[in-house]
Design brief:
Helix content: 25-40%
Structural class: alpha/beta
Number of helices: 7
Bound molecules: zinc ion
CATH architecture of the largest domain: 3-Layer(aba) Sandwich
CATH class of the largest domain: Alpha Beta
CATH superfamily of the largest domain: Dipeptide transport protein
Largest sheet: 7 strands, mixed
């Protein structure tokens, strides 16, 4: 009986030792692989600045040329997404930002990324951005209305907008949207498009911005597209470069009050906007308004463009 007790006690002690050893090795395992620090990247993808795109027909779903261009759009994006994940990104959100915003075929996007698809969306080309992101990237962007030579230059709406000024600075979409990222304290770290768009981006968003030119405009509807293999490699490398030097980028934050000035193509497009009380007419084709909150101002700007488009 005594010997049986001794055996039982020994067996019990051995059991305790095994359990405590297992627990300590588990704890060691945990401490040797700490949870990865979140590194979230927001991407807005337009179409006019995608490699291969030189004409509006390639960007419009009723043209047979569109089916090929939407594949290039996914390819340019995937090269950037691959570079981001390879260099430590933990989450990538891609917002389709052109026309119907249903251009990238969901199954053709890198499956590690999330796709925001469709429209209308409250924040339009910037839907999905929030202060939780560490970086913002613009892919396939184009130059402001009135640029030359630049592929398909326009600002938000080619049929309605002649120019948009914010705090006296004439803005391309990259500036308007860059300031939205700045509103949420997220720096724009990279942009891709034609050479003129890259130049405008550095001028507005700063020289640290990584730009990857994919083509050089000959005129509004013709470009030298750089060799495809090199472009895809440059897009991936550009993305890697941003992540390895993330600390140097500063958000593009404009100072309030935000003074918006919208110059339309014709006087009727401006007149319809006067239905909104705080909007003033400063010239026959030009409306102006002020806002203390940038995103509220941006939403009013979109409402004015929307009214003008239907007038
Ligand atoms: Zn577009």
């Amino acid at each position: 009986m005594k010997r049986f007790r001794l055996i039982t006690a020994t067996a019990f002690l051995s059991f305790l030792m095994i359990v405590s050893l297992a627990a300590s090795s588990q704890a060691q395992g945990k401490s040797s692989s700490p949870a990865k620090k979140p590194l979230k990247v927001f991407i807005s993808v337009d179409m006019e600045g995608i490699w291969g795109v030189v004409h509006g027909n390639q960007c419009s779903s009723d043209s047979p040329e569109y089916q090929q261009a939407r594949k290039w759009m996914a390819e340019d994006t995937n090269a950037v997404v691959a570079g981001l994940f390879e260099s430590g990104a933990t989450e990538v959100v891609v917002n389709d930002s052109h026309g119907s915003m249903r251009n990238i075929i969901a199954s053709e996007l890198d499956p590690r990324a999330m796709l925001i698809s469709g429209s209308p969306k409250p924040m339009s080309m910037m839907e999905g951005i929030d202060p939780g992101f560490q970086a913002c990237i613009f892919i396939g962007y184009h130059a402001r209305a009135g640029s030359a030579p630049a592929i398909l230059d326009h600002t938000i709406s080619g049929s309605v907008i002649y120019s948009i000024k914010i705090n006296s600075l004439e803005m391309p979409e990259l500036g308007i949207n860059g300031a939205i990222a700045g509103y949420y304290h997220v720096p724009v770290v990279m942009l891709t498009g034609d050479t003129e768009t890259c130049r405008q981006a550095k001028e507005i968003l700063g020289n640290d911005l990584v730009t990857v030119p994919v083509k050089e405009a000959v005129n509004r509807f013709a470009a030298r597209n750089f060799p495809r293999e090199k472009v895809l490699a440059d897009l991936k490398e550009g993305a890697r470069k941003t992540i390895s030097s993330l600390d140097k980028f500063k958000p593009y934050e404009l100072k309030p009050p935000y003074q918006f000035e919208v110059n339309f193509h014709n006087s009727q497009q401006a007149e319809i906007g006067l239905l909104i009380p705080e909007v003033k007419r400063v010239a026959p084709r030009t409306l102006s308004f002020s806002s203390q909150d940038y995103v509220e101002g941006f939403k009013l700007l979109r409402a004015l463009i929307s009214l003008a488009s239907g007038s």
